[in-house]
Amino acid sequence: MAVVVSCVNLKGGVGKTTLAVNMAAYFGKKKKKTLLIDLDPQTNATFSCIDIDQWKDHAAKRGTVADLLGARQHTKPDAKHKTVDDVIIEDVFKNVDLVPSHLDLFTVDLDMAGATAREMRLRKALQQVENKYDVVICDCPPNLTIPTQNALAASTYFVVPISADYLSALGVGILLNRVKQLGVDLDQELKLGGIVISRVGRQAHHRDEIVKELRNQFKNDVLPDVLKERVAVAESAAKNKCVFDMSDASAIQEFNAVYGELAKRIGI
Questions:
Q1: Tens of each residue's pLDDT in the chain, 268 residues
Q2: What does each C-alpha distance from 173 to 151, 177, 212 come to in angstroms?
Q3: How far, in Å, CA of 10 to CA of 90, rounded?
Q4: How far apart are CA 128 and CA 85, in angstroms?
Q5: What's the CA gap between 16 and 199, in Å, rounded?
Q6: What is the model's pLDDT at position 73?
Q7: CA atoms of 30 and 52, how far apart (whole Å)
Q8: DSSP class of residue 261?
Q9: Are the C-beta atoms of residues 233 and 200 closer than 8 Å to each other?
Q10: How far apart are CA 42 and CA 26, in angstroms?
Q11: What is the Cα–Cα distance from 180 to 189, expressed in whole angstroms?
Q12: Cα–Cα distance, 264 to 194 (Å, whole number)
């Protein structure tokens, strides 16, 4: 059965998508069959793997994660139930398949306001492929709405990326408490895989003090290695590549160190 990991944070711009996409690529290169699920309506993880024309064609013909969650099915006269096999795009990276996202997720909470077991749609969908993959990585939107709830309901671990700025650090404790309570409500044991300090190097006031305080407050939950803000990281997404296929040796070393530690913590 696959180990399911969600990348979550209540704030955007902290490197969550970068962490999720390249984590999937890392495990793929380690010969682990991996599924990357993009649950963010901004579709950044999707467009880090495929171009917009491929996405448009696939979304029209085979569907996206929005179909798995039931978004807007009641507005489509020809709506048909989609399975996870229907919506998967195979081999976006080595040993990595993708469930793409869709803009329809922006209104999914309204669309599913009266739906029963709406937080369990993704977990039920993944039952069809849970023996096909070693690892499932979920990239979540910067909130705890229906897409994130679905990801966490299917997960055994969650990882929190955080940039070393005041506003990003402010909500970490709140996030951990809310995820813990959500796990209780969903009857799902959710374990913290780690807090990853990312995007180090971009402008931030009192960065060193913030990092020190994070390590003091959350102890060993904060990974020892960090991810720096690098041109190669942004370029990899624009080229639909992972960091490991770029030529920046320092970036590759950093990502290897972070994912190697995460792999140990989540038992892969």
A1: 899 999 999 988 899 999 999 999 999 999 999 999 999 999 999 999 999 999 999 999 999 999 999 886 644 555 567 899 999 999 999 999 999 999 999 988 888 877 888 999 999 999 999 899 999 999 999 999 999 999 999 999 999 999 877 777 778 989 999 999 999 998 889 999 999 999 887 655 677 888 888 899 999 999 999 999 999 999 999 999 999 999 999 999 999 999 999 999 999 9
A2: 20, 6, 15
A3: 30
A4: 8
A5: 10
A6: 62
A7: 28
A8: H
A9: no
A10: 23
A11: 8
A12: 11
Backbone φ and ψ of 94, nearest 5°: -60, 120
Alpha carbons within 13 angstroms on the beta-carbon side of residue 3 total 20
- Distances in Å between the Cα of 141 and the Cα atoms of 44, 80, 166 are 10, 26, 20
Of 154, 143, 177, nearest in space to 6 by CA? 154
**Residues β-bridged to residue 135:** 3, 34
First to last CA, the chain: 12
Q: What are the respective helix, strand and coil percentages of the chain, to the nearest 5?
A: 50, 15, 35
Instruction: Extract the tokens encoding 181.
Output: 């309570």
Q: Which two tokens stand for residue 110?
A: 């309204």
Find the length of the chain: 268
Helix, strand, or coil (residue 99): strand
161 neighbors 19 (Cβ within 8 angstroms): yes
* Structural domains of the chain ordered from first start: 3-265 (3.40.50.300)
Angle, in degrees to the nearest 10, between helices 172-185 and 146-154 = 70
Helices (H), the chain: 16-29, 44-47, 52-61, 65-69, 84-87, 108-111, 121-126, 146-154, 166-170, 172-185, 207-218, 231-238, 249-265
Token output for 118: 């709406």
Give dist(CA 21, CA 149) in Å, integer.
20
